[in-house]
From TrEMBL:
<feature type="domain" description="HTH cro/C1-type">
    <location>
        <begin position="33"/>
        <end position="81"/>
    </location>
</feature>
<dbReference type="InterPro" id="IPR010982">
    <property type="entry name" value="Lambda_DNA-bd_dom_sf"/>
</dbReference>
<dbReference type="GO" id="GO:0003677">
    <property type="term" value="F:DNA binding"/>
</dbReference>
<dbReference type="InterPro" id="IPR001387">
    <property type="entry name" value="Cro/C1-type_HTH"/>
</dbReference>
<dbReference type="Pfam" id="PF13560">
    <property type="entry name" value="HTH_31"/>
</dbReference>
<dbReference type="InterPro" id="IPR041413">
    <property type="entry name" value="MLTR_LBD"/>
</dbReference>
<protein>
    <submittedName>
        <fullName>Helix-turn-helix protein</fullName>
    </submittedName>
</protein>
<dbReference type="Pfam" id="PF17765">
    <property type="entry name" value="MLTR_LBD"/>
</dbReference>
Length: 286
């Protein structure tokens, strides 16, 4: 681990990126360019103290999970992310691991989407990055591990996950998830991550086995769905999906389909502002 080089690299990348670049308000009394350490901590989901120790060369070697979080927070390019891993004494992620780190270009697009829920997902349904509105709507899913990080697995094994979708649309959504997973399995027939997930779902869910046997195939591009939030109620939303050329990652954006949904989404934003800490709050770590 090259502590001094790592510290200098992190400090310079933090100073080179502004609050607006990551979807944060500049706020008053900002005397220097770049992000504050508290803001990096908030975006990366770690303590301010740890960010300080990293920048001062006093930390233990960060894990690959922490490095991935820092790469997302600092909007590093693929080359910069690999350099970060090298400085910390880790091998950069291989192709499968890289697919689990949201691409810098998608994260920058995510930053521009302030008033609507948006997230970056892998083709297996793992949430790689979310904006604030996405967290307010459905919760933070970026820290899940094991099979739970995959949306199809949670959908078919954890009934409470379906509460966000209206009952009359749940069958349709289940079919979409299975058809999309079938398309992934067709593109990656020898990938053990795909085959393993499908095998475990077939073993644990009779509903999944039934739908999988129907052999429906479809890659989700656009859809309209009714989201049910416990605080603001039902919202009719249009779902648009931008898929990368290699089809390994996608940017999913939810926009209100009518005035009522827009008003309820605005209310959710206001309620969330009251509940969630900002970058200027006293304890920005999460």
């Amino acid at each position: 681990m090259q502590r001094e080089e790592l510290a200098d690299f992190l400090r310079r990348r933090r100073e080179a990126i502004g609050p607006a670049d990551v979807g944060l308000a500049e706020g008053p009394r900002r005397r220097t360019a770049g992000l504050r350490r508290e803001e990096v901590a908030l975006l990366a989901g770690m303590s301010v103290d740890y960010v300080v120790r990293l920048e001062q060369g006093r930390s233990s070697r960060p894990s690959t999970q922490l490095l991935g979080a820092l790469a997302r927070a600092l909007r590093l390019s693929d080359d910069e992310r690999d350099h970060l891993f090298h400085l910390a004494g880790h091998r950069p992620p291989p192709a499968e691991g890289t697919a689990r780190l949201a691409r810098a270009g998608l994260i920058r697009m995510l930053d521009l989407l302030v008033g609507v829920p948006a997230l970056v997902m892998s083709d297996l349904g793992e949430v790689l990055a979310q904006n604030r509105m996405s967290v307010l709507l459905g919760g933070d899913h970026t820290g899940l591990t094991g099979d739970r990080r995959y949306l199809p697995y949670r959908w078919f094994t954890e009934p409470e996950v379906r509460a966000l979708h209206s009952p009359e649309e749940q069958e349709h959504h289940a079919r979409q998830l299975v058809a999309d997973l079938r398309a992934v399995a067709g593109r990656r027939p020898d990938d053990p991550a795909v085959g393993g997930l499908v095998g475990r779902l077939r073993a644990e869910s009779a509903e999944f086995r039934r739908l999988w046997a129907e052999h429906e195939v479809a890659v989700r591009r656009a859809d309209r769905k009714t989201m049910v939030h416990p605080r603001v109620g039902r919202m009719l939303m249009d779902c648009e999906t931008l898929v990368t050329l290699d089809q390994r990652q996608m940017l999913v954006v939810l926009t209100p389909a009518n005035t009522e949904a827009r008003e309820r989404l605005d209310l959710l934003h206001v309620l969330g502002t009251q509940d969630f800490p900002t970058a200027n709050s006293e304890d920005p770590a999460r």
